[in-house]
Amino acid sequence: MNNPSDSGITNNKLVIAHRGASGYLPEHSIAAKAMAYAMGADYIEQDVVMTKDNHLIVLHDPYLDRITNVMSVYPDRYRENFGEKRWFAIDFSLQEIKGLSMTEAFSVNSKTNKLTTNYPSRFPLFKSSFHVSTLEEEIELIQGLNHSTGKNIGIYVEIKTPWFHQYEGKDISKATLKVLKDYGYITKEHKVFVQCFDPDETRRINDQLMPELGIDLNLVQLIAQTSWNETMRFTNGKLVPYSYDWFFEAGAMAKIAEYADAIGPWKSMLVTEDSEPGNLKISSMVKDAHAVGMQVHPYTFRADEERIPKYANSFDQLLDIFFYTVGVDGIFTDFPDKAVQFLQK
Ligand code: CA
After folding, report:
1. pLDDT mean over 168-178
2. What's the CATH number where 59 sits?
């Protein structure tokens, strides 16, 4: 926790461990979550997707091939996805997924078949032993640590691609909320945020699913660029990207505040990428969100040298800009230790 002698504002700033302490250990491994916990993060993030046999697993992508050896274990069990071969979690049982080795994010060179790590300074590929966890296993880790340390660290659960799960006949939001309820997350006082990129689904969670289950949790509307194809719709039999353009228009934050408690924007939506040192271009999004009572938790803050925007000369300065010039309420970071230390200064 932050030092109680800090200013009131400082005390409210949240450090959200993005996929765990993913700057140091493979994202979403149990080890990365335990490390984030020990580093003093306020919340630890879980991305959730569903298996063929309806288990909820903690995985960033709907597919397994970016961080596991699924391609070599099950070479034929891929789907074509926008011209690429992808091994989707929804086509595998939990038992099959549990048998895979998990590692740092990598990509495969299509000509040489060689693996390249996405972050050269991070944990080496396929060393030690990591495996995909279920949502329940991860909640039990964090609740177990809360018990053994006497702290009360939160979970920050993202429901991934609900439109895709629905197309496959699965209601991932309902299943996730049921697990949260079973583990005692019932009201907004409980230390959980539920986040989703799909605005229709976030609204459905608030208006329909949570009332049906008798729970009322803090909801976060994540914001994507339309061009990322993060949220899709079937229109006239074709997949088309959901348009996020209205999020950047006047009055958008008031609409989101009808169903959400916070927004999770990309950090470049708050400080534009053409900003220069000493000449920051700050959008009105934080001011507009605060005006309607919503918190702002942007993603993703990475201390890897090549990931610090040119308008900041260090990771600390980047944090300083966002926490104290832009005025965000929390940040998603792969390096929770650095953000915790910054806030304690
Ligand atoms: Ca996420």
Report:
1. 98
2. 3.20.20.190
